[in-house]
Structures are given as structure tokens and as C-alpha cells.
Specification:
The structure is a single chain. Helix content is about 70%, strand content about 0%. It is built from 13 helices and no strands. By secondary structure, the chain is an all-alpha fold. It starts with about 25 loop residues before the first helix and ends with a helix. Helix 8 packs across helix 10.
Amino acid sequence: MSAGASLTLEPAPVLARGRRRHALPGFGVSLGLTLAWLGLIVLIPLAALAIKPWELGLAGLLDALSEPRVVAAFRLSFGGALLAALVSVPLGLLLAWAVTRYRFPGRRLLDALVDLPFALPTAVAGLALTALFAPNGWLGAPLAQWFGWQVAFKPAGVVVALIFVALPFIVRTVEPVLRDLSFDAEEAAATLGATRLQTIRRVVLPALLPATITGFGLGFARAVGEYGSVIFIAGNMPMVSEIAPLLIVVKLEQFNYAAAAGIGLAMLLLSFAILLALNIWQRWLRRGRI
């Protein structure tokens, strides 16, 4: 290099204004596809469900929802789902406790059977429950002979089918919490003289309560909209054992799409309100407010 030559430095390339580098490559494209699928699968059907009933007008919609047959179907669907979720809570806690805390022959088989309602087609489950609890079934005949109870083709059959589909949600929600629960608090309670029942009631159950509420909400939500496993065992008698999802199908077969959408919208709003209340309760529990 000659003495008169000057050294020049090229400026570093500058990114175009407005362009940012994200830590996750393809984040914008992935977010766009996710929102597109969300709109197609969830938002657009929900919007149609919310708009269609208003073809009847406010008075017509209220008349359609206040029919005695519709009210009876709502009472059975929501009342049966609530009862099934409540019954599933102690049963699910016992099953989760047995699978988690004890070792006995057949434990793995019992653990696998808990997931049976997830894997079994709902129509097959309904047929199996009907065969078991029918008046001449393996369980229905003894119940009718010894106690005079008829389960199949009655509201009791609806509750049995809903317990079948709601129970796994309680077990699978509580089980991970039980596995992670330390034995130190239980041992400390025993050292202080607490009985086993007092330890469970004052140490174990409070730790399981948020997970139990979550499982209860999931089981209730599944039971409210259950159709396949209920339709065979219910009997489908109007005003007696007819569920709201079946009534929606009946309205669709009658080409009364607005009334069917109105029933579906009412079920959606009621379910959302109940789940919202459970979610608020769970947050209060986690924050120690109650």
C-alpha cells in the first residue's frame, strides 16, 4: 500500500427498517396458520351458532327454549351431568389413590381400564351399558329382582352412562398431583399424633382440591354434551329420559334449524357460565383467599 493511499471501511449492512429477527423461526407464518385454523374450526361455527337462533326473533327464541319438552331435556342433561360429576369425584379419588399409592396384582390392568372410555367408541359404550343394565342384563336383572330398580331406559341409565364418561377425567387429573405429593407432610402429621383419616382430610385433600375441581369441570363439560353412550341406555322418552343433544338432532330432522341452534347456544352459555365459576373458584383456592 502506498503512503498516499487512504484506508476506507465499508459500513456494515443495516437491516431494513421495520424488520425484526425473532428467536423462533417462522413464528409469523405459524401464528397465521394457527389463527386461520382457529377461525375455520372454532370461531366461524360459533358465530353461526350465535346468529342462527335470532331468525326466530327474541320472542320466538324464548318460546322455543321455554317449551316443556326443552326444559325437561335441559334439566336431565345438566342435572345428570352435575350428579355424574359429583359421584365421579370420590370414585376418581379412590381409584387414583389405589393406582398411585398401592402395589397389587392387576394394578396395571386397572390403570389401563381407566382410559377405556377415552378409547372406546361412544356408541359401543352405550350398547355395552345397555346390555349390562337392561332388565334382563347381567346387572340389570339382579337390581330389578333384589331392589326393584330399573336402570336402563330411565333417567338413572343416563346418569350411569355419564359417570362412565366423566370418571376418567377425575382420575387422570388427580393422579399426577398424587404422584408428586411429598410424604413429608403426611409423616409430620403422623408424628404429631394425627390419625390416618385426619391426615387425609387436613393434609392430602386440600392439596388435591384444585386438581379435583379441574377434573370435575372437565368431566361435567364432557357429560353435558355426551350423546353416543347415552342414546341407547336412555330410552329417549320425551319429558322423561330425553337429553338435550338428542333434542337438537330431533329439531334438525324437522328442519327447524333455528330452534336447534337456539338449544345449542343455550347449552353453550350455561356450560360456559358453570366452567367460568369453577375456574374463578380454583384461582381463589390457589391464591389462598378461601
